[in-house]
Design a protein that fits this description.
Length: 348
């Protein structure tokens, strides 16, 4: 049976999980830090901006996430022409709406409270894909506004992630105290302007098109082929073909852009002659696990982020039959076969 020709049709669709690339599997998830919500009149927007910026800067030091601060969130939403969402959140539903719009893995929202000389910072970590709140922490403080603004981000973060210390780094001092309301506003505004900004992230496009080509192989042969891939957020549909048949597949990527593992369900049809000159018709249905690696991981060229390679491993069920032999020849078979793939793609 000429199954090796069908191998490309299956494997060319998506790539399998590559255990030999552990470095790429250690990529950091993205986490957005929303502007913390000032609870009614208990605190002001300047204090909220200051504490939110500091929180994002400290979170970046933990090296657990690629961090997006509230100012970058605003930019992404404006670029997407999404102007009807709140800038702060106090519940899960609000956080999920913003998180899905900006395409992050996690999001932190918080509430700042103040009654007299009692202050609090209440934060929640949300898993956007899972649609649930995973961690929650409250930091209560009695004292001055200046002391609260200085201590709250770090102390709340330690509680939220269950850590003892935050790595040291030279930072811009945060001061919230002022003699008069006018001085307070001016000083806090300056802090916000100078606060460290999380790494910039490009706006994620919901729909993209890619061209793809490459080889697939089994234990006997290599086969070339090419086709297109249509991407919508974390989902992907591919159609690939060569001279012997075609294949389609639906895939889910863990991350919408960049390096990402994926899972695919595929199917193919082929009509060719095997090595004995007998016409063979086959249908293959399979699943693949793979990993996509974008070239900007190791190249600095502008176009590198649009180029990726996908490598994969999986298994398929094949149902085939022979036609066109002698009048007495009519064979068929059903079996499971391994699938392998290495392809290269360019996304527009």
């Amino acid at each position: 049976m000429g199954r090796q020709k069908a191998m490309f049709l299956l494997a060319s669709i998506f790539f399998l999980l590559v255990l030999a690339l552990p470095g790429y599997c250690s990529e950091k998830p993205t986490c957005a830090v929303l502007l913390f919500h000032p609870d009614m009149a208990s605190s002001n927007i300047y204090e909220s901006q200051m504490i939110s910026s500091r929180y994002a800067e400290l979170l970046d030091r933990l090296d657990m996430f690629d961090v997006i601060d509230y100012k970058k969130i605003d930019e992404i939403l404006i670029n997407k022409n999404v102007l009807d969402l709140e800038k702060t959140c106090t519940d899960l539903g609000c956080a999920l709406k913003i998180g899905n719009k900006i395409g992050v893995d996690f999001l932190i929202y918080g509430i700042i409270g103040n009654v007299g000389n009692l202050y609090s910072l209440d934060t929640t970590l949300v898993n956007i894909a899972g649609g649930n709140e995973t961690q929650h922490a409250v930091y209560d403080f009695e004292g001055t506004q200046e002391e609260f603004a200085k201590n709250a981000p770090a102390e709340n973060m330690k509680s939220l992630f269950g850590i003892q210390e935050i790595p040291e780094k030279e930072i811009i001092p945060v001061t919230a105290a002022a003699v008069t309301a006018g001085e307070l506003k001016q000083e806090e505004t300056q802090v916000v302007e100078d606060a460290p900004v999380a790494p910039a992230h490009e706006e994620l496009k919901d729909f993209r098109v890619a061209i793809r080509g490459g080889i697939a192989f089994d234990f006997d042969n290599l086969e070339p082929g090419a086709g297109i891939e249509l991407k919508f957020k974390k989902l992907s549909f591919a159609f690939l073909a060569n001279g012997d048949g075609f294949a389609t597949g639906l895939s889910y990527y863990l991350h919408q852009e960049g390096n990402s593992p994926f899972f695919s369900v595929v199917g193919s049809y082929y009509d060719t002659k095997n090595k004995y000159g007998i016409k063979e018709i086959g249908r293959i249905y399979g699943i693949l696990l793979g990993y996509r690696v974008t070239f900007d991981s190791f190249m600095e060229a502008d176009m590198a982020k649009n180029i990726d390679t996908r490598i994969g491993l999986g298994a398929g069920y094949v149902n085939w039959d022979e036609r066109g032999g002698t009048p007495y020849t009519s064979a068929s078979d059903e079996e499971f076969i391994p699938l392998f793939e290495v392809t290269l793609g360019y996304t527009f």
